[in-house]
Amino acid sequence: MKFTQIFKSFPKTFWIANTMELFERWAWYGLFAVLALYLTKSTDEGALGFSHIQKGSIMGTVTAILYFLPIITGAIADRIGYKKILFLAYFLLTSGYLLMGYVDTYLTVYLAFLWVALGAAFFKPVISATITKTTSKETSSIGFGIFYMMVNVGGFIGPIFSSKLRGAFGWKIVFIMAASAIVVNILLLLFFYKEPDREKSTEPLGQVIKKSLLNILTALADIKLAIFLIIMVGFWTMFNQLFYTLPNFIDQWVNTSIIYNSIANISPALAAAIGTSEGTIAPEMMVNLDAGAIIFFQVLISALVMKFRPVNGIISGILVAALGIGIAFGTGNGFYVILGIFIFALGEMASSPKFTEYVGTIAPKGKEALYMGTSFLPVAAGNYFTGFLSGNLYEAWTDKISLLKIEVVKRGLEIPEITNGFTQNDYINKAAEQMGMNNQQLTDFLWNTYNPSKIWYVFSAIGIVTVIALMLYNKFILKSIEEKNTITEK
Fold first, then answer.
1. Residue of 131, 101, 134, 96 lying closest to 114 (CA atoms)
2. Domains in the chain, CATH or no CATH each
3. How confident is the model at residue 219 (pLDDT cuts 50, 70, 90)?
4. Can you tell me the distance from the alpha carbon of 421 to that of 430, in angstroms, rounded to the nearest whole number?
């Protein structure tokens, strides 16, 4: 089938589902790219001023729940119907995003974000299943390629809008923007989405959920799948540092005005378009280079690793990503941070598609969907462990406020505790004043004294350990299985 014929063969629902994916990712990443900043930055800037431990707990556990739930929500959707579940998902997402903009305590933010995660967990399996059911064996490769592109287009546009909007109108507009993107999906669902044909089950809902969980346990009884998924928890733990931790690191330690000025010397209009009114580059705009690189280079990287065995492709990709994450966190130089993000993106492009491909290739015939359902498990576990590293470890090793408090105690300075009436910024300004420094000098002093960049050792080490584990898996697990199969065939 020719390329143009494939495009013409896709039904309208395929394109509607892809458009819905774009707007849902726009909403999710528009919030998630700045969430770490919103949770932890100073209250006098309109943020919540939470500790990094609280941030890690909220982002880590809630997102882990989000990626575990599709095992159950997918089964519910098959039983109840895709259109009804999408209505439920969009109600949860719209109300959840709006609610998150108006609550400000740890518990209420946690619950509001959990509400959003529940909506996303209902959305994910339904939209993927719609793509599956609106493509054929001949068109599925291109169909899912288009789908993956829409994921990244939405993930690229969302942070750009949230960055510019929060700079102009404050934090609450970010949540209104996310909710508005979901409202577009409600309109698409009402007027254009047609539920694809599916097998309608009359089984009780409880039985459907129970069977779904038992099926996952059955799949995990396959030792090569179970061990592989456990190893891949390391990759997702490293990967998630890009959104959980790097925005805070850039915000606290990286002087992005140097980057802004360099761009302004070439094109003042471009600098104004991507920069802030203070002459800096917002952290989320720098991190967004990852999604931008994927949009432009994914096809090229996929072509380069196409002939790699899936495990070899994953190993190569994670090794490159570990190098990138080390460079991004290993320096306060903004240009090296950008380089690190770009290198990380190259590794992600090589490893992520191969991860999906590998799970599909080891699945027994007729169990492909079941095995693919297990691929969410390492993502869920990776998010959970990321919460600890981005929270507890970051606060102990790298958080600027925590390190400054240590120095204040060492010097015996008398500075009030941070409260609603005495913010993080007040604390920094008071400390700088008593130490006879300006804010940049204070940042440089803390950087040189406490070496906050040492956290890169942990992040890169996780990637390296994952690579070593995969190499051992490839040598001892896969090869022994292949040898057994060869003997059986003889």
1. 96
2. 10-193 (1.20.1250.20), 222-398+451-490 (1.20.1250.20), 401-450 (no CATH)
3. confident
4. 14
